[in-house]
Amino acid sequence: MVIAAEFSKDKPVPEKAAFLRRTYRGGYGLNTDSGKLAVWYADDGLHLSNGPAARYNKAAQVISWEDAATRIDAMLTDGSFMTNVELAETPGFEHSQLAQSLWYLFHDMSEQARDAGYLPSMAELSGGGYPDEIARLSERLENEDFRNGLTAEFESFTEAYSQDRELLRFHYHKPDEMLSALRDLNLPRRELSASMVTLPEISAFITEDEIDAAISGGSSFAGGKQRIYDFFLAPHTTKEKADFLKKEYGTGGRSHTLSGSSGSDESHEARGERFRKTNCAPVELSWQKVAKRIEALISDGHYLTPEKQSAYDAILEAREEPETTIEDYLPYNDVKAAYPDNIVLYQVGDFFEIYGEDARTASDLLEITLTSKTLPNIGRVAMCGFPVSEQERYIADLRDRYDVTVSALDEDTPSGRRTYTVLSIDHEAAQAIDAHEAEFGADGWRAFGGRGPLDPQNEGVDGLGIPERDGASGNGVTTPVSVRKEALRRKAEVENQQNNGTSIPPNCQKVSEFLYDFVCTYGEKKWGVSMYDGQTALIANYINPIIGDMDIQEITPRVVDKYIQTLQKTPCVSTKTRKAKDTFVSDKTIEKIIKLLRCAFKQAVRWELIGRNPFDNTVLPRTEYAKRDIWDAETIRKALDNCHDGKLYVAMNLAFACSMRMGEILGLAWRNVHIEDENIARDNAYVYIEQELTRASKRAIEMLGGKDIYHIFTPLMPNTSTCVILEKPKTDSSVRKIWLPKTLAYILREWRKSQNELKAFLGDEYQDFDLVIALPNGRPCEERIINKEFALLKEKAELPYVVFHSLRHSSTTYKLKLNHGDLKATQGDTGHAEIDMITKGYAHILDEDRKINAQKFESAFYTNANPDLRHVTAPPEPQAVQTVDLAALIEQLQQNPELANTLATLIAGSKGSN
């Protein structure tokens, strides 16, 4: 649809050709009746060749982009390029894509740009959050008057941005292309046709060019490509190179690997690399095969681009300079010790070098190669660098975030070096403000000699800058008493704030605007993808619709109390994938909302946007937590005996014996399961928890830049908004070692054996991600699948209702009983961040052990203590009411006449006495 939208415009062929060159990248493979056909999209056109590769094939046919554009024009005319459904959806698709780009840019504008009032038409559409605002903007783009107004506004913004890049907080946007797209919406459109109802079936394959391009990207770690190149240039055998690659890559993967396709991915583990692409057979390469490919790429000069090769040659030249001694680097240590928080640039010859953690930080920020260097008597340290001639540009980029200290060579100084510091932009601004206040005072008036507007000695004013009424002339304005009292009160308040340093200038930022900044600057740094999804949903559903349009300085404790009352009457929001369980917002959700806002406004205080946090000391609704129902050991044994699903059986054992969370169980990898004979014999079998499996939104993953994500699984269905990932556990304490009972170790052995048999049977159809709990085809098993099997087990075996997570609570309960309340040992298994989480949740178990403590105290102390206390007897136990078995009594009386006569005499005597 992108091609159809562009080619429907009345543009010349060269412009269409340039668009094709920008759009197509990488390669594509097609299986035909005559064999394989490969294409590579290059700057000069499409390179086509029979066989698996075309990029470097000198015999390949080259079709220029102009010829390709002409051919596509003809196909769009005769209706053979796309289906009629795609053609009908093209206009809406074009508007939607542009609306999304505009929305992202608008929300990335700086405060400076917002204060200047750029793009007011976009501001009018705010409300409802991301999907609603984009839908409204997409619809408005169909209106010519709105388009013309927005285009004029965007022209003004683009011109200003070309002069001042501070108008945007992030600079990945392309305003010029977006402006061109806006203008294109007014171009006349040609009539296109589509005679196809469905596209013809095709068979594709992954080309050798695509694999080579992916391999040439290096490993997923910073400086990986450079390390691989260095190692392969040294004299090593192919096996040594393969072993090096195995260690360099580790275990993991990435998406969009082949030609940037969203339906492609790469994964790697101990056996090698695996490449996959939609509608293509997967390709697996052992590390030896990967090593041979890299050898060939380096030999042919295709591993490094010309630009990268030039940079690498410059590094080699720097390395060939005369050998330095430890004395040459002593000044660096002195400089770094004096400026430990700054990034230190140390000049060596014609290069500035950066070492250690500074090098890692600068390498990521400046996008330059990270390498290492051997320093005399120190060893190898991480290093990056750049030519002295480029220092101005690189220092400017570094000081966006860091203070930079430069140690430059200078023959005019006794030491031969000149050291100076360039402050970061923030620190430079703070220094300027301090200098301004030193001269003018915090209120902007000079701190010496003169009188400010609040000086009561000013003639003609009442101390507030309000003229007194001139009785003689009748001029002036009489200030109402109430206004004057309020002004005096406010004056005293301002003076008090200035005296104690809590004065905050007026700020008209809306809550919604502030929360957007909070998410961008705090949330994207601190939160994982799951937390990001949850917190942004609370903001979109329950915060912005109610208080989002209020100024942040209008939020007071009284407003907070009213906000909580409003939340209690607010209907719950249902999503496409989850229906709300409650009619109104629950007290538990309100607690989460207030916790989020308390954290956000704490940052607002730190950023000096407000004087105090209105969410401190908030009285929350009383939350009633339901008692956790758990299974006892006997019920768990019954459940395991009736469980016939292998993955559920293993998962239940891990939850109960190891106190593992569901995500940790589903993300457990075989490489972290240590059940070798020696370990089991020594009771040293264990699992290591370092990742968990969950489902997250693609939006969150994109916004967080893949932070703390180890692997993204390719979705089975196209156009999904979420995907399954392996991520780092939420807290550091969740990364832990858990020892296994021997029986569970043997269970895991049998499970791995059956999994390997299935893997051998399926061959290439098995997608091996090294997961302990996996589907029959090797793909990850999600929580909903385990929960469904668990529900069926409970129903079939007639077991009490509990959730799967309760097995973890059962585990914690029994461990506390068995170890007599050893909190640290239990916390080590459960991975709780705070020990209080155990003492609060399992206090009843600890109470039982406290009873034992009392009994032990009685035995150890009171038994031989005061004699008066030794003979204290316990109160008698209440006697149970005895019942008479009448049938047995009658039988006994019949067999013993004497007993019957005696009983009759006793009864008669009893009556007579009464």
Structure description:
It is a single chain. By secondary structure, the chain is of the alpha+beta class. Helices cover 49% and strands 12% of the residues. The chain is built from 37 helices and 21 strands. A six-stranded mixed sheet has the order 12-13-11-10-14-15, with helices on both faces. The chain is globular. Mean pLDDT is 77; it is low at 319-328, 433-487 and 865-875.
Question: Major sheet, described briefly?
Answer: 6 strands, mixed
Number of strands: 21
Percent of residues in β-strands: 5-15%
Q: Give the uncertain stretches in residue-range form.
A: 319-328, 433-487, 865-875
What structural class results from the helix and strand content?
Answer: alpha+beta
Q: Please tell me the total number of domains.
A: 7
Number of helices: 37
Give the termini separation: 110 Å
Helix content: 40-55%
Give a nutshell description of this structure.
By secondary structure, the chain is of the alpha+beta class.
